[in-house]
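Take a look at this chain, tokens included, and explain the fold to me:
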Amino acid sequence: MKGLFGDLQTMPMEEVAVYLGKQKASGTLNLERGWVRKQVRLQGGTIINASSNDPREFLGQFLINLGYITEEQFHRAYETQKQTKIFLGRILIMTGAVTEEMVLSVLNLKMRETLFEAFLWGDGSFAFLPEKAQATQTELRLSAPLLEMYAAGKQRKEQWETIRQTLPSTDIHFRVSMEKFSGILSKTSLVSRIVQLAEETHNLAEIALQLHATDFFLFQHVYALIQAGVLLPKNEAPPSSYAPEEEEEASVSKHLLLQAQSCLKEGELREASALAKRAHARTPTTETLALSQSTESHLLNELRDKWLEQKRTPVLNIPAEQIRQLSLTAPERYLLSRIDGNRSLSAIVHVSPMREVEAISLFERFWEQGWVKFLQPSYSEASFKPARPAPPAASPKF
């Protein structure tokens, strides 16, 4: 069959799945929405592998979420992987952290969840490139027929719409009924952990980070606990009903875009990235997406050179009590809670379920605010100044 290209507003994911499934297609399906990119390998209309650049959909994150490994085990395996290039799952099996059956089970779950999440997208693009698929031995042991995925994905989309009516925001906190919880006969470790975190007054966003969980994977469990009366959402302030006119949005977006382009030429990558993201959030276009991706790519390279080139270990520079009194976002609270004076910045960043550019940027902010300091390298932090990178080319290639 020929290639297939389009956008998910015109041809939703469920229609793409049905078409490729009925055609018994073999090849690669690329999905893109904002910064998220997914790649699904098909053989005869069956999924044999799926990958994503969303950290929450990495194998290690699923293993942590399911309680099979700890963050420390994940980091040690990650460091070994960098040196040996051996697959993460194989390293964990070799070290005895997990069994081969566990890894295969989680890989199968990861593969399905990676595609299922795309069923929830209201926009984005897809491109199918036909080819003669050649599966590896591991891939041959994993399979998910697209037509079966279609039925399950459609059901999930309906469930998601119902769940979001009850949980419209990740800022929601909960009251916990331990009496109702004690009446649940079958309590998984994941459910118990959700209840514990809710009782500790964590909101939904903080629970997701603590558990390294994808949205649907967490929300379905929280929704079930709400239905059982275990979790009671606290009333949140209603969202503003103000909606700017379309012409006003386009005008503001254009102004932000011009500012971002100007900052990019001047090498002000943080400002350029923030402005480009705001422009794309207001009026998503091919131009705003391209600029947002370009500025973020340059910013990530600068942050890596500045903070990850040498092994820096963050330590709190203010009392923990003072940290608890700060008004923090869920990602900020999560990262600060991982600082123990032993784990390097690289370890914390790569184990976290957050995107690398976001995690490093927050640590840089912590340093600027004086909340943390870094042990090593040998030269003093006071004299440390990042070198300003040369302005990138006007039309960078992706």
Q: What stands out?
A: The radius of gyration is 23 Å. The CA atoms of residues 349 and 356 lie 6 Å apart.
